[in-house]
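Quick one:
INPUT:
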């Protein structure tokens, strides 16, 4: 299934219709020479940002500076010139107690917010919608929207398979097409903004372990053959967000991207209605045309 969709058109939509800048709209993937975590657009990722930037970095900075100062002090005070006769001290109870107790206290300080964050990630709230993602042996993803209706055999009426977009396979072609290298898919996942999305993740029974990961959402969950795993996210703003399979799953592991487009509720409803009546492929073409038209209007 090959769809024509450009990131530029989507950026125009979000800048013109969703009320955010183009720079904000493209923050869904890591940039060359970027330092730090990707922008947080979900409660889980906001918690990860605080845990990393507000707690871990200050602690490791203090520890690093303390060890550096201690090393300098030792080199200056206890070198051969300052102490021609070396000390024969072999035991110091106070020091041994301190270097045992202080690391324990540091680990407790880290553990408490860490457990709270893990609980937030794994305690799935009441979902507004559900999407099932299946990792395939062909190194692509199949997505099902059971909330949009079921067939007589119980399968979802709205489903599609997303593979790496051909424009993103080669770095020069990706630059010319203005799409993220190895991240653009030919069939993105559509979700509404500010809605809790429950993800059911699995892998084809004849396949291998994959992992569905979106860094900006702060989520990563294994797709295991024959087993259903659950995760969730709630995107706080519209935009285009990318991820990749995060398990070493074989020869095409690097070519198994994930693309999620977060829309305003009205746009998502329009996509969903079209997908129910005409199929996912036509719905994607419909939404792409709609976004391109809106982008051109916003530019005028």
């Amino acid at each position: 299934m090959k769809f024509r969709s450009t990131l530029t058109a989507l950026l125009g939509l979000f800048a013109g219709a969703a009320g955010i800048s183009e720079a904000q709209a493209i923050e869904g993937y890591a940039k060359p020479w970027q330092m730090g975590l990707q922008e947080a657009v979900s409660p889980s990722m906001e918690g990860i940002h605080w845990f990393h930037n507000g707690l871990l970095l200050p602690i490791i900075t203090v520890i690093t500076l303390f060890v550096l100062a201690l090393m300098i002090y030792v080199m200056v005070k206890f070198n051969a010139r300052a102490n021609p006769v070396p000390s024969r001290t072999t035991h110091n109870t106070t020091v041994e107690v301190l270097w045992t107790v202080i690391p324990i206290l540091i680990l407790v300080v880290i553990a408490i917010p860490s457990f709270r964050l893990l609980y937030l990630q794994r305690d799935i709230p009441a979902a507004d919608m559900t999407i099932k993602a299946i990792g395939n042996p062909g190194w692509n993803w199949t997505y099902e929207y059971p909330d949009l209706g079921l067939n007589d055999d119980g399968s979802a009426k709205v489903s599609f398979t997303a593979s790496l977009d051909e424009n993103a396979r080669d770095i020069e072609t990706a630059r010319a097409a203005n799409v993220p290298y190895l991240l653009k898919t030919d069939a993105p996942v559509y979700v509404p903004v500010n809605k809790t999305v429950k993800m059911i993740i699995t892998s084809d029974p004849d396949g291998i372990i994959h992992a569905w990961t979106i860094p900006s959402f702060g989520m990563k969950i294994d797709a295991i053959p024959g087993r259903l795993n659950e995760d969730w996210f709630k995107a706080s703003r519209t935009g285009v967000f990318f991820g990749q399979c995060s398990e070493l799953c074989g020869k095409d592991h690097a070519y198994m991207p994930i693309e999620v487009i977060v829309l305003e509720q009205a746009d998502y409803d329009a996509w969903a209605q079209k997908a129910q009546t005409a199929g996912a492929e036509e719905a994607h073409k419909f939404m792409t045309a709609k976004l391109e038209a809106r982008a051109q209007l916003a530019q005028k």
